[in-house]
């Protein structure tokens, strides 16, 4: 945390992974973090700390738009607001990929299992402000074959460098990344250059670096939007990432058939004094692991079978 006074405002999340890691190549960390841990800053897209921050836009405009939406007349039984993806809530992680290094700002995403970025030559790509990574100019880039796979990109191993919150660079060699050469759709905005996958899969960032950090675990502290604009969020990896102290509450991660995402069990929600159970539409009972934790999706969404009775309450 850049500002200790904001530590009480943070939303803390701890994820500990115990997985068997089997990869075609093994990543290696710089000696200064072996057996230990490190932290990096997370950058909110609309934060002044973001390289994509638009200084010509008055900060009040976003607040005014939200205020107008709140003041729009609506039927209390029928939500009228347009449902759209809230990109303001996404957090970016800065990585430097290749030799010489190229800066990449990827969405920190616990719902993805691969580090991925757009690469040159890009046949069909979404608009991107910063230059794309060109593997032809990197001396450490090595492509990997995927027998029988149909893909619009390349699985490769590269060197990644991150700046820790202590100021020391953290270098990771031979880490698996996805290099996309044909990417379409509306998944990203022009200030998002890819994804830093933090899921439970074998090729995710945390699964690859975990063995060199004393364990595949990480935690992150997100500064609320109303906090000081100069305050920064933080993500910690390996030893020292544990969230400890008075007031810490934990919930178990549930193992499901989905081996790539983090699942928790939500029993229900309270509206005033009324408790609405989060029952499955099939069994009419609370199912274990009924909710996915996905840092790449800022909006929270639930099935209509729960939302309708919840709204009626």
Automatic annotation (TrEMBL):
Asked if tRNA-binding is a keyword of the record, the answer is: no
Give the GO molecular function terms: peptidase activity
Q: Which UniProt keywords apply?
A: Hydrolase, Protease, Signal
Which InterPro entries does UniProt cross-reference here?
Pepsin-like_plant, PEPTIDASE_A1, Peptidase_aspartic_dom_sf, Plant_Aspart_Prot_A1, TAXi_N
**Keyword ATP-binding applies:** no
Instruction: Give the signal sequence positions.
Output: 1-30
One GO BP annotation is: proteolysis
One GO CC annotation: extracellular region
Q: Peptidase A1 domain: from which residue to which, for each copy?
A: 91-313
Q: Which Gene3D superfamilies match?
A: Acid Proteases
Family assignment? Answer: Belongs to the peptidase A1 family.
UniProt-recorded name of the protein: Aspartic proteinase CDR1-like
Question: Which organism does this record belong to?
Answer: Prunus yedoensis var. nudiflora
Lineage runs: Eukaryota, Viridiplantae, Streptophyta, Embryophyta, Tracheophyta
């Amino acid at each position: 945390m850049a500002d200790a006074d904001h530590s009480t405002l943070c939303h803390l999340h701890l994820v500990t992974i115990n997985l068997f890691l089997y990869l075609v190549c093994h990543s290696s960390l710089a000696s200064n973090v072996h057996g230990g841990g490190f932290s990096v800053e997370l950058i909110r897209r609309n934060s002044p700390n973001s390289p994509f921050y638009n200084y010509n836009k008055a900060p009040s405009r976003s607040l005014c738009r939200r205020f107008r939406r709140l003041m729009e007349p609506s039927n209390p039984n029928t939500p009228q607001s347009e449902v759209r993806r809230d990109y303001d809530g996404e957090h970016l992680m800065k990585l430097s990929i290749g030799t010489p290094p190229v800066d990449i700002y990827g969405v920190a995403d616990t719902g993805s299992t691969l580090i991925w970025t757009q690469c040159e030559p890009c046949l069909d790509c979404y608009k991107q402000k910063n230059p794309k990574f060109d593997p032809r100019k990197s001396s450490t880039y090595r492509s990997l074959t995927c027998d029988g796979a149909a893909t619009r990109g390349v699985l490769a191993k590269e060197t990644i460098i991150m700046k820790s919150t202590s100021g020391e660079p953290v270098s990771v060699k031979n880490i698996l990344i996805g290099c996309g050469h044909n990417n379409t759709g509306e998944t990203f905005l022009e200030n998002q250059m890819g994804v830093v996958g933090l899921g439970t899969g074998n090729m995710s960032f945390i699964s690859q670096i975990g063995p060199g950090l004393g364990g595949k675990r990480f935690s992150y502290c997100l500064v609320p939007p109303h906090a000081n604009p100069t305050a920064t969020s933080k993500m910690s990896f390996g030893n020292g990432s544990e969230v400890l102290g008075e007031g810490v509450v934990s919930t178990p991660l549930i193992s499901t058939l989905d081996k790539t995402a983090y699942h928790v069990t939500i029993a229900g929600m309270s509206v005033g004094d009324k408790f609405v159970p989060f029952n499955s539409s099939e069994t009419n009972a609370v199912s274990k692991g009924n909710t996915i934790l996905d840092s790449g999706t800022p909006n929270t969404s639930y099935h209509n079978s729960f939302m309708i009775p919840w709204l009626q309450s």
